[in-house]
Amino acid sequence: MASLNTLFVFCISLSGTITIFSDAITLKPCMFNSTCSCNNADGYIDLHPIANNNNTPHFSNVTDGYNHVYSFNPCYGFDEGSVCQNAAICQLDTTANKYNVIGYADTVRSVSSSMYGLMFKYSSTTDMPQPSRNRTAYVVLVCDATKEGELQFVQEDPVNEFYFYLYSTHACAIPPAPTSPGAATRTFWTPPPPPVRTTAGPPTTPSPTSLPVIFSQKAEVVLMLCILIVLIILCGLVILSVCVFSARLKSTNNEKAELGQSANYGTKDETKIRLKTDF
Ligand SMILES: *[C@@H]1O[C@H](CO)[C@@H](O)[C@H](O)[C@H]1NC(C)=O
Ligand SMILES: *[C@@H]1O[C@H](CO)[C@@H](O)[C@H](O)[C@H]1NC(C)=O
Ligand SMILES: *[C@@H]1O[C@H](CO)[C@@H](O)[C@H](O)[C@H]1NC(C)=O
């Protein structure tokens, strides 16, 4: 019974986990075709309209609510102070008046996160000023048609990993243009099977493994396996309990029969035998 209880609790927590997972954002890796534009399952995202191309940051003075302000520029690197050179994200400690590079422009990668959706990731390794540090900035692309561009500091958690929300209409994916005039209305159109090939060579599709995805689909596979195992265990338990139940039913019937006998004969020996067969 204790093990059944444990299983019950496990199932409850598992279903909770499944609920959280199904609420999670679908992974849509984005393939860069410039330093700030990429294509994913939703379409094309291009941050060029909110990027400066004159060595200055488009977003600046973004506060963390304490003593730091941040500057950010997509697409092109900028310089700030003597420390931030070719930066994508630069931090200024306003009390110490000290600059830190959070991410260099040429380190940009797209990250598809089940928690945040699409993010642009920038990183830096700095030996100077001391102490040497690796910092990472995640700019979460928040599609907001009402905003041209607004950068908001979210958190530094864990330390040296900085999260920002970029609210922008340019963070919204533009669906690919229809290839033919009649194609605009066919949302769920299924193409006919391709004609039989006469020339060799299958069409090449881009390998998804080449994409930098930190929150990989492995977690989903593990979850699926877990569910499968639990289902197998559950089936086993159902079969087992049916067996045990029928066995008990039988023994109860036997007991009843024996009770009838002992009522007829009333001998102590028979009572002993009955007690032995009892669980
Ligand atoms: C990137 O892809 C988009 C749409 O797929 C296209 O419009 C754009 O011209 C491409 N840019 C570059 C630099 O290749
Ligand atoms: C930065 O923002 C603060 C308030 O958030 C403001 O007082 C200050 O003038 C701003 N500085 C610049 C350079 O824009
Ligand atoms: C920074 O990262 C590099 C390579 O990614 C690693 O070799 C180095 O030890 C890291 N430095 C610190 C201070 O974490």
Record the SSE blueprint.
Blueprint: H1 2-23, E1 31-32, E2 37-40, E3 43-46, E4 59-63, E5 68-72, E6 78-80, E7 84-93, E8 98-104, E9 109-113, E10 117-126, E11 133-143, E12 150-156, E13 161-168, H2 218-265, H3 268-277
Parallel strand pairs: 11-13
Antiparallel strand pairs: 1-2, 2-3, 4-5, 5-7, 6-7, 7-8, 9-10, 10-11, 12-13
The structure holds 2-acetamido-2-deoxy-beta-D-glucopyranose (3 copies).
Question: Your description of this structure?
Answer:
The chain crosses the membrane at residues 221-247. Residues 34-174 form the MRH domain. It comes from Patella caerulea (Rayed Mediterranean limpet). It is found in: Endomembrane system. Keywords: Disulfide bond, Membrane, Signal, Transmembrane, Transmembrane helix, Transport. This protein is α+β, with helices and mostly antiparallel strands and 279 residues long. It folds into two domains: 1-25 and 202-272; 26-188, Mannose-6-phosphate receptor binding domain (Cation-dependent Mannose-6-phosphate Receptor, Chain A). It contains three helices and 13 strands; from the N terminus they run αβββββββββββββαα. It has helices at residues 2-23, 218-265, 268-277, and strands at residues 31-32, 37-40, 43-46, 59-63, 68-72, 78-80, 84-93, 98-104, 109-113, 117-126, 133-143, 150-156, 161-168. The strands form three sheets. Strands 4, 5, 6, 7 and 8 form a five-stranded antiparallel β-sheet that branches. A five-stranded mixed β-sheet has the order 9-10-11-13-12, with no helix packed on it. A hairpin with a 4-residue loop joins strand 1 (31-32) and strand 2. Helix 2 runs antiparallel to helix 3 (268-277). The longest helix has 48 residues, at 218-265. The relative contact order is 0.11. One 2-acetamido-2-deoxy-beta-D-glucopyranose binds at residues 61, 63.
